[in-house]
Amino acid sequence: MSQRPGRIHPFLVDRIFLSTLACAYVVYLMAFGHVLYLWMFAPSNPITEHQIDMTSNIAIQYWTVANMRNAIDDNQQNGDVSSLTRERGTVTGQGKASLQQGQPPSDESLSYPLSTVGKVFFTNAAGQNMSCSGTAVTSPNSSVVDTAGHCFYQHGDWMQNVLFCPQYDNGNTPYGCWAARDLEIPSDWLNAQHTI
């Protein structure tokens, strides 16, 4: 008796085809998935950086104890945009400059995390001395302070004379103060319409 050649069952053909298609899809995802994800979902430039064009010593000398005490707390402002249109006042620069170098606290009772919280001082485009709260954060360069976006950029202008003093209290700076070298904000903040 002769045997007839066997036919491949249609169900088996479908399984082989689907298995091959699934393997090809997995290889495709492994090779190009991250590119596809970045193209579809990742923002092109999520952070905007602004280099400070003055030396740190200028900002440190600018922020005298008197200038710090008279700085307007920007976190407490009620969105008064008219204050930004006032003429620039003259800065006298009188008074003793704040501490120039960071140092261990003189008060041993200050401990983490309270020791990382402080004040960010800056001058806005209208020449007003302002302040915001800020905190030192863990970073690879050990030199990053986190604060609100409007403390670095507001109404189309970058802030000047930016300084951070951890544990600042009415002119007392137990850890010293550090001048900013560059400012970074989310690009979305730069391009948004602000009401602050």
UniProtKB/TrEMBL annotation:
Residue ranges, annotated region (Disordered): 76-109
InterPro entries (UniProt xref): Glutamyl_endopeptidase, Peptidase_S1_PA, Peptidase_S1_PA_chymotrypsin
Transmembrane regions: 12-40
Compositionally biased region (Polar residues): 91-109
Keywords tagged on the record: Membrane, Signal, Transmembrane, Transmembrane helix
Protein name: Peptidase S1 domain-containing protein
